[in-house]
């Protein structure tokens, strides 16, 4: 059977999308064992994301990444955090496809929710909030709404984290810490 170059490209694309979907299902099915397999699953997905130009495949890989992050519940996610955040930023800045941009925001949402109170310690909040501020002015309403939802989630987690520190008597929110001088 002889296929044209276009048919071969289409077939390869379909196979790669299916691989990303299988990885997402595996991630979801692993449950508590997902962090043990994080590296084995993450590296092929990041490679797929880096080497593809097709919007459908990029959206599929980003969705698979978010499933893996959710399955890990914050454990081992830090290993590839900077790569995932870079992929999100690049998708938002350079991809015009709405599906890809929405998938990258779902990944950011998964990252933020998986960190819960640890968001204070490990996430580069300045970069994330700057990106979300830019996205809140986007022409697509769904992008603006998703960005606003993630900003609200981060604010709630920050407030919760500060209240936990206050309850543990580690900080006094009413006392001047000398940071304003």
TrEMBL record:
Matches recorded under Gene3D superfamilies: Leucine-rich Repeat Variant
An example GO BP is: protein secretion
Q: Where are the transmembrane segments?
A: none
User: Which InterPro entries does the UniProt entry name for this protein?
Assistant: ARM-like (IPR011989), ARM-type_fold (IPR016024), TANGO6/Rtp1 (IPR039600)
Name the record gives this protein: RTP1_C1 domain-containing protein
- Species assigned in the record: Gongylonema pulchrum
């Amino acid at each position: 059977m002889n296929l044209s170059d276009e048919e071969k490209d289409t077939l390869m694309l379909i196979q790669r999308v299916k691989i990303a979907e299988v990885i997402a299902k595996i991630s979801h099915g692993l449950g508590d064992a997902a962090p043990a397999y994080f590296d084995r699953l993450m590296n092929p997905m990041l490679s797929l994301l880096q080497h593809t130009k097709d919007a459908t495949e990029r959206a599929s890989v980003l969705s698979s990444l978010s499933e893996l992050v959710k399955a890990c519940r914050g454990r081992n996610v830090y290993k590839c955090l900077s790569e995932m955040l870079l992929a999100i930023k690049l998708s938002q800045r350079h991809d015009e496809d709405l599906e890809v941009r929405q998938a990258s925001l779902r990944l950011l949402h998964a990252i933020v929710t998986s960190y819960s109170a640890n968001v204070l310690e490990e996430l580069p909040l300045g970069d994330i909030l700057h990106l979300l501020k830019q996205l809140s002015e986007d022409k697509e309403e769904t992008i603006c709404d998703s960005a606003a939802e993630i900003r609200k989630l981060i604010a709630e987690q920050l407030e919760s984290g500060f209240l936990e520190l206050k309850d543990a008597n580690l900080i006094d929110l009413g006392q001047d810490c000398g940071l304003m001088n």
